[in-house]
Every structure is written in structure tokens, then in C-alpha cells.
Specification:
By secondary structure, this protein is mostly helical. Helix content is 82%, strand content 0%. It folds into 2 domains: 31-153, no CATH class; 162-260. It is built from 12 helices and no strands.
């Protein structure tokens, strides 16, 4: 009798929990998925990601469903920070801020599943199991942020490396009689394709100019998307030339010389830093060789073999 009563109470409790979960999820299920980005750079990146990755095509409906649920949460500051990072990361996967948060939620779910599998198959118990349950979801939650940060840094590095050459070509084109937009278009068509980070940014500058934005507005947007020192210096010099009425071709030529000097200085700094970094592995190799040469004699001496 006690067993049946306990079982009945257990079933009743499970039914109440499931009913409460269903009642809580029902309003969410009525919310339609958020629309996928279709226009602009974000729409282009989304289409490319859907075309290239089959796993992302499977994940896309779930991302948009969770993003529609998250739209009602007051995450203004978080959305602004994520939006800035996504733009600087080249509109990674064409994600919106809410979809990026949804990607983190899905990643945490994968971490929980992975932790459950490890605990079950390794039969861990006690504090070690709870530590694993805590660390695995946290590590999986960090993965999307780490991937986005790595993409931002790699993108900034590629733009900084290609910018001196682009400025040199712009200076040559403007010296040959082309104006600034035609020089950029020539560079994108011949030297920096659209699929490269710098070619993509120059293309977006041309889009802004074609839409009627001023040269200052287009370049300032470029500096916001790529907040590195070489880009800020270039944009600041061009904006200052407009304010003072200086010829743009002269400013671009000066910037070309400055960027070449900066590239030489950066190369020298990297070479000097590489020499300092080599000291650690060289010291380890030297100690290992010394141990190989002297080690047998030390062992024989300690064993009394040399007496």
C-alpha cells in the first residue's frame, strides 16, 4: 500500500511538472521564428553560411526560434556590445545579436549533454561530478565568444597588412587621374577581391558612396568597423584634408609613405620579439643536451661506479 501510494504521488508530481512546463512553453511556441537577414552585408554573409555549411542549415531554424523568444528580454547593453563585435568580425555567419545569444544557449546545452555523458560513462561521484557539471557548460558557453574574438583579431591583422599596399595603389591611381571612388573600385577589381577582409571593407565603402553618403561618412563607418590604428590614421587624415581643403591625392601619398614606414617598424619589432622568444626554447634544448651528456656520469658517480 505504501509503495503504490508513493508511486502514485511520484506520477502525480511528474504530471504536474510536465503540465507546468507545457503551460510555460505554450506561449513561446506561438511566437513565430525571427526572419533571417536577407539584405546588406549581413544578409550576404547569412546566405554564404547557409550555402557552405550543412550543419548551419540544420541549426538555422532553432537559432531563429530561440532568437524570437529572446527578443522580449531587456538585453539592450548586451545586444549593443554583441552588435559591435559582430560588425567588427565581418558579420560572422550573418548572425543578429539575439541569434548569437541563442547560439550561446545551444552551446551551453551541448556542454550539459557532454558533461552528462562523461559523468555517466566514467561513474564520477561527489565533488568531482559537480565540478564537471559546472565547468563543461561554462567552457562551451565561452566557445562562441572565443570564435568571434579570434575572427575579429585575424580580420584586423589581415586588413592592417593589406592597407599599405592599398594606399600605395590608391595614390598611383589618383596620380594617374582617377578620382577616389574609381581608384577604390579599380583596386577592388584588380588587387583585393571581395572575399578578402580588406576588399570587403573597401566594397562597403563604395556601397556607402553609391547610396549617397559623403566620403567622410563612408570612411568613418569603415573606421568603426575596423578600429585599428592604421585605419584610424588614414580616416583622420582624409577627414582633416576635407576640412582644410588640402588635395586628397597629396594626403593619400603622404599616408602611403607613413604606412610603409610603419610596416617596416612593425616588421623590425616582430623580428626583435622573435629573437627574445627564441631564448626560452633554446635554453630548454641546451639544458636537455647538457643532461644527456653529463647525466650518465652523474648517475655512475652517485652509484659509485667511478670510484
Amino acid at each position: 500500500m505504501n509503495l503504490s501510494t508513493t508511486s502514485l504521488l511520484g506520477y502525480l508530481g511528474a504530471a504536474l511538472v510536465m503540465s507546468g512546463a507545457a503551460a510555460a512553453l505554450y506561449p513561446l511556441m506561438l511566437i513565430p521564428p525571427s526572419p533571417a537577414p536577407e539584405f546588406g552585408a549581413r544578409g550576404l554573409k547569412r546566405a554564404q553560411a547557409l550555402q557552405r555549411s550543412a550543419s548551419f542549415r540544420l541549426l538555422d531554424p532553432l537559432l531563429r526560434t530561440l532568437a524570437a523568444w529572446l527578443e522580449h528580454l531587456p538585453l539592450v547593453a548586451l545586444r549593443s556590445s554583441i552588435q559591435r563585435r559582430l560588425v567588427q568580425g565581418g558579420e560572422w555567419l550573418g548572425l543578429t545579436p539575439d541569434e548569437f545569444v541563442a547560439l550561446n544557449v545551444i552551446s551551453v546545452g551541448h556542454g550539459c549533454v557532454f558533461a552528462w555523458l562523461l559523468v555517466r560513462h566514467s561513474e564520477l561521484q561527489g565533488e568531482l561530478a559537480w565540478t564537471l557539471w559546472t565547468l563543461m557548460p561554462l567552457c562551451f558557453a565561452i566557445l562562441p565568444w572565443a570564435r568571434l574574438s579570434a575572427r575579429r583579431q585575424a580580420r584586423f591583422m589581415q586588413i592592417n597588412r593589406g592597407l599599405p599596399r592599398a594606399i600605395d595603389l590608391t595614390s598611383l591611381c589618383m596620380s594617374a587621374g582617377l578620382d577616389f571612388p574609381r581608384s577604390l573600385r579599380y583596386i577592388v577589381e584588380r588587387a583585393f577581391p571581395v572575399h578578402t577582409p580588406l576588399g570587403e571593407e573597401l566594397t562597403r565603402v563604395l556601397w556607402s558612396l553609391d547610396l549617397g553618403h559623403t566620403r567622410r561618412e563612408a570612411l568613418e563607418e569603415f573606421a568603426l568597423r575596423t578600429p585599428t590604428e592604421p585605419v584610424r590614421d588614414l580616416v583622420g587624415a582624409v577627414v582633416q584634408s576635407e576640412q582644410k581643403g588640402t588635395a586628397l591625392a597629396e594626403v593619400i601619398a603622404v599616408q602611403a609613405r607613413v604606412q610603409r614606414m610603419r610596416r617596416s617598424v612593425v616588421a623590425e619589432e616582430i623580428a626583435a620579439r622573435a629573437g627574445a622568444l627564441l631564448l626560452v626554447p633554446m635554453s630548454i634544448i641546451f639544458v636537455a643536451l647538457l643532461a644527456l651528456l653529463i647525466g650518465p656520469f652523474v648517475i655512475r658517480f652517485m652509484a659509485g661506479g667511478l670510484m
